[in-house]
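Lecture notes, part 5. Sequence design as translation. It can be helpful to think of inverse folding as translation between two languages: the language of shapes and the language of residues. The source text, in structure tokens, appears below.
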């Protein structure tokens, strides 16, 4: 929450427009107003223009997904990413839970992990860890909140039978052509899908499909399967944009996190 660290201040309390605010904040330093604090600084002069052309590839022929990205998952309302013909049908208990949620109770605003598929409105990095030419792991590193990370196992293992529920679950990945497919289970029920408070249960399973459609764009198509909260699965799509020259900066959300105490009203307001 230390404003002097950041020239990119985001208004996460206004999460519906957070990504637009972020682009503007790259140009003009402003005071921190986000309930979760301000993100790390990235000099606009270092960012450069968006790269053009096709997606680069690794020596093994697979698409190179590495780099610092912004976006790629819901922030304001997961409904904004619904694919054509898709709908979100909450079960009665889940609908009641969502309607009773208060904005101040959003775990993201209180410096807790965002879970899957939500992203905080801050940069994140993909690291591909090769072993003899083939990646055995992928890592997602998040600047926002608690500098959390996701570990994606790429070595062919399955999900263990004795999973302990966690914020990011247990993720296994594989390639389908040029698309990285990540299946995750073993979630806790504590994070929200978005700022308006869409819930989930520990029965949640997500299937993410990442495709680098060009040098600057990473498409993420996510299927949400949770029979404990939703009457049927649904699929959403979000795009992340590569930020050349950016680095993840130190951002300690818990430090001087004062704004969250001033948030009032139902979730999403």
């Amino acid at each position: 929450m230390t404003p002097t660290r950041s020239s990119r201040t985001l208004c996460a309390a206004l999460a519906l427009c957070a990504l637009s605010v972020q682009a503007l904040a790259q140009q003009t330093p402003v005071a921190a107003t986000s309930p979760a604090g301000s993100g790390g600084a990235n000099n606009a002069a270092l960012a450069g223009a968006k790269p053009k052309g096709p997606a680069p590839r690794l020596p093994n022929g697979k698409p190179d997904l590495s780099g610092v990205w912004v976006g790629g998952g819901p922030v304001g309302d997961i409904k904004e990413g619904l694919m054509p013909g898709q709908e979100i049908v909450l079960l009665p208990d889940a609908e009641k839970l969502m309607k009773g949620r208060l904005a101040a109770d959003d775990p993201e605003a209180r410096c807790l992990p965002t879970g899957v598929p939500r992203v905080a409105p801050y940069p994140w990095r993909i690291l591909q860890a090769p072993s003899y030419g083939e990646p055995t792991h992928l890592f997602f590193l998040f600047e926002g909140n608690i500098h959390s990370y996701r570990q994606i196992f790429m070595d062919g293992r399955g999900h263990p039978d004795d999973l302990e529920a966690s914020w990011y679950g247990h993720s296994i990945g594989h390639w389908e052509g040029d698309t990285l497919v990540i299946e995750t289970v073993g979630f806790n029920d504590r994070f929200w899908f978005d700022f308006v408070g869409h819930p989930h249960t520990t029965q949640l399973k997500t299937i993410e499909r990442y495709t680098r459609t060009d040098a600057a764009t990473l498409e993420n198509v996510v299927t949400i399967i949770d029979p404990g909260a939703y009457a049927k699965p649904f699929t959403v799509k979000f795009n992340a944009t590569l930020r050349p020259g950016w680095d993840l900066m130190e951002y300690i959300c818990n430090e001087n996190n004062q704004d969250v105490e001033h948030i009032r009203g139902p979730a999403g307001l």
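The translated text above is only one of many valid answers, since several sequences can fold into similar shapes. The longest strand covers residues 205-214.
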